[in-house]
Design goal:
Low-confidence stretches: 188-193
CATH class of the largest domain: Alpha Beta
Strand content: 25-35%
Shape: globular
Number of strands: 23
Distance between the termini: 50 Å
CATH architecture of the largest domain: Alpha-Beta Complex
CATH superfamily of the largest domain: endopeptidase domain like (from Nostoc punctiforme)
Number of domains: 3
Number of helices: 8
Helix content: 10-25%
Largest sheet: 6 strands, antiparallel
CATH topology of the largest domain: endopeptidase fold (from Nostoc punctiforme)
Mean pLDDT: 93
Radius of gyration: 19 Å
């Protein structure tokens, strides 16, 4: 599949609104930087799991500094410019100090679909994938898989049918997802209308233990450190910035002896006094759960472990004090 901005005129004008039309889109720092082995990440239907599993450590480390972030199926994107069959977009749902409009990056044009009037109304309930991944099906019986999507993918609910929800996709019509795979959100918040408590965030995080780290990762197929913490809070409808350095500047500062489950912990160069380079989530009992680096997987580890003991630079809390 090939697309060219020149073939479609006004469709690809700056400011045009699109949605992500692939399970997980990877946003690059520059267009056409991908290697042959990155094909699964730039295809029309991406397979991030297969891509990540096929890479050696050296090949994963090559990605550092070349990838920006990822965006999920159905997520909104605003076009800034095109270059050949690549588009530079911003992702409004991922706050960053780099651009007040959202997170910037390049992706292939064929991973975008023009934003259209949703089949469901704007105030329709939403189904949010709560498992590492889940399949959407062509049929309510779940016999014909359509697409595997990631944790945190959000789709409007058109109808409730027994053990499944009928959901509206970006450009593929109505599909079906098992209720057991989603959090049902009615209106502006989760079904119970209450903010989460820290233990809920930690419980949700635990399902990803053992998942390999992926630079710029923002999906249930692989996270980087701040993508992991951002995604956990986003799942519960709490907006925080995409990157660790920005996350460290919002919320409320927390003393180390007053940590609660769900607080974010920050680590910095120069024994904690330099620039922020890592973030994890406090899990209780003097431990954190985090996505460490390209050589390792998501783990739960003591705050006394090296190098974190010496690089600790503070903690922030984003949950209400009343809970």
């Amino acid at each position: 599949m090939t697309h060219s901005a020149g073939e479609n005129g006004d469709q690809y004008r700056p400011g045009a609104r699109f949605v992500i039309h692939t399970p997980v889109a990877t946003l690059w720092g520059e267009p056409n930087r991908n290697r042959p082995l990155d094909e699964a990440s730039v295809a029309a239907v991406t397979d991030i799991r297969a891509w990540a599993q096929a890479m050696t450590l050296e090949q994963k480390l090559w990605l550092v500094g070349k990838l920006e972030t990822q965006a999920l199926y159905g997520e909104k994107a605003i076009l800034l410019e095109t270059r050949g069959d690549w588009a530079k977009v911003i992702v409004p749902e991922q706050p960053t100090s780099r651009d007040e409009r959202g997170y910037p990056g390049w992706l292939p044009l064929w991973q975008l679909s023009p934003e259209s009037e949703p089949a469901a109304s704007l105030d329709s309930p939403t189904a949010v994938i709560r498992t590492r991944s889940a399949f959407l099906f062509d049929d309510p019986e779940g016999k014909q898989p359509f697409l595997e999507v990631s944790f945190n993918t959000k789709l409007p609910v058109a109808e409730e049918l027994g053990s499944v929800f009928a959901v509206c996709t970006p450009a593929d019509g109505v599909k079906y997802v098992p209720k057991a795979s989603v959090l049902y959100i009615c209106g502006n918040g989760p079904g119970d209308a209450a903010p989460p408590i820290g233990e809920q965030l930690v419980h949700m995080a635990k399902q990803f233990l053992g998942l390999p780290y992926l630079w710029a990762g923002l999906s249930g197929f692989g996270f980087d450190c701040s993508g992991f913490t951002y995604s956990l809070y986003r799942f519960y409808g709490i907006p925080i910035p995409r990157d660790a350095s920005d996350q460290s500047k919002i919320g409320r500062a927390v003393d180390k002896d007053g940590l609660r489950a769900g607080d974010l912990l920050f680590f910095a160069h120069q024994d904690g006094s330099g620039s922020i380079h890592h973030v994890g989530m406090y899990a209780g009992d003097g431990e954190m759960i985090h996505a460490p680096n390209s050589a390792r997987s998501i783990e739960r580890i003591s705050l006394e472990a090296d190098p974190y003991k010496h690089e600790y630079a503070g903690a922030r809390r984003y949950l209400p004090e009343t809970r």
